[in-house]
Design brief:
2 copies of one chain form a homodimer.
Chain A (H helix, E strand, L loop, with lengths): L4 E6 L3 H10 L5 E7 L3 H11 L3 E3 L2 H5 L6 E4 L6 H10 L3 E5 L6 H14 L3 E4 L6 H11 L6 E9 L19 H17 L5 E8 L5 E11 L2 E8 L8 E5 L2 E5 L7 E6 L5 E4 L8 H12 L10 H18 L8
Parallel strand pairs in A: 1-2, 1-4, 2-3, 4-5, 5-6, 7-10
Antiparallel strand pairs in A: 7-11, 8-9, 9-10, 11-12, 12-13, 13-14
Helix pairs in contact in A: 4-5, 5-9, 7-9
Chain lengths: ~325, ~325
Amino acid sequence: MSDKIRWGLIGLGFIARRFVNDLARLPDAEIYAVASRSQEKADAFGAEYGATKIYGSYEDLANDPNVDVAYIGTPHNLHLEHSLLCLNAGKHVLCEKPFAVNAKEAQVMIDCAREKNRFLMDAFWTRYFPAMDKLRELLAEDVIGDVMLVQADFGGRGPVVPEKRHFNPDLAGGALLDVGSYCIQFASMIYGKPPTDIVSQYTLGSTGVDELSVLVFRYSDYEMATLTSAIRLGTPHEARVMGTEGYIAIPNFWHPNELTSVLSGQAPETLRFPYEGEGFQFEAIEVGNCIRGGLIESPVYPLEETLTIMQTMDRIRADWGLRYPFED
Amino acid sequence: MSDKIRWGLIGLGFIARRFVNDLARLPDAEIYAVASRSQEKADAFGAEYGATKIYGSYEDLANDPNVDVAYIGTPHNLHLEHSLLCLNAGKHVLCEKPFAVNAKEAQVMIDCAREKNRFLMDAFWTRYFPAMDKLRELLAEDVIGDVMLVQADFGGRGPVVPEKRHFNPDLAGGALLDVGSYCIQFASMIYGKPPTDIVSQYTLGSTGVDELSVLVFRYSDYEMATLTSAIRLGTPHEARVMGTEGYIAIPNFWHPNELTSVLSGQAPETLRFPYEGEGFQFEAIEVGNCIRGGLIESPVYPLEETLTIMQTMDRIRADWGLRYPFED
């Protein structure tokens, strides 16, 4: 490995652009290679970000011996294929969220990384923010006592466009995988285990995918979570963790830059964690730290947890009777 | 009726004291009579508030021809008995929340009021605040478009004391009736109809009553509510109404004094509604307006809605297998 970690980008869409804008902030990261199935798109993107190598095929990037880690930014129905491509070529991999379409795919990806002894991480970017580090620290210190309830909502509103990713079952559309996953991974981070029981209200829209749902998870008698997802409704995007001694609110928990603690008998206190850009750099920093440390998975988001979350989403979709056409 | 509405208070506990502190702010209301089963308690309370008549029995207050309206502030397992006592004696009645223990009781109370042609109202005080008037006005103006989700939480944390009201099944204890009712009546106000489908996670504690629950109501495919209640967990007490064009948040919705509107493409706006005291005066003002206007129920909170909410709570308790001993 050179002094800088050399990144290779697979897929150059909207999310890759946001990621790379923040990756560019890191002095020890190099935007080394970019790949798109469209040479034209790759050329434009590569020129814009000063990439050393510009590929019109994902395979070529995977086979470039100078790429240290591949960022998989293709649509999530392609994460399995592109992660395997890069892992099998000996690359470390940071795979965009949702990590895969179902637990079966996630398991194959994880098995491959372990077999190849390569680093693999779920790019659930919100987990790696300094505000989230602080939240985990506060919870470990039992600041709010025993957690009894997690509340989180993530909903956006867009027009129903059947062929587009959010609404298209062929692309594993729906609110659950795209935005509900933020809420589920948050609850998973807090409780550190999967729910034992799940109930929900949900609506499958005209294209067959979930457009609005409220999930209620139960972990034990006094541990619950209420999680809202939508692609037809904008919601505040707030998360709250409520315990026996108070609660912590994280406004805008998908760009977390503050925590407000409301503890029994004390004035509310807000801790701020300002950062530059959108905050995608934090997951890239975690990747760098792990790779330099010789780890093949992140202790902040172990692959077993990623797998468990995919299993939870499988279970919810099974309850809903929502299978994607390619799963049959 | 004299120039002032002469109030008679049945039950002189914690809630009656809070109510009467605010009632005393109204120039056209007179704290005319008070009654407790303890003459001593009645004497002390009556002297403190300058009541003209002080009774050691509820019957005597009910039979005082000068009482215009009785406020029923006894524990909710006694609301039926004391409301009927006063209605049958020809008094108008404002009955504390929860209005009754179940829909059967509520129906008897409503039937009695109609038969006697007396005013009867559910003292769900939060409904009558100026902030709630404004919220109803904004929703009627479709400011946030079509409502898709209501979120509300009401939880307090107290020690488990089996004989005390909150935990005692003989006194119709549990979170649902005591605090969950705030959330349910709020959702009912927004949607103006009962849910068609309900799912929940809930925990019945050591005394047999519900200590923590999350309810998810469905009204139609794109109309839901997620409602949290607890007597073992303090929660923020916030309500939010989310629609297709934005949402309105009501922090501390059981003492509502502000509304924050977050509308698509606009800066958030907070409207403030300061008031004196705790805000119990607003329900008393509504009672005064209705009685002076010759109404026997409030258009702000019709008895049919009170009944529907009790039916909803019956249905939830039936799902949970939670019956109070005196219901058998």
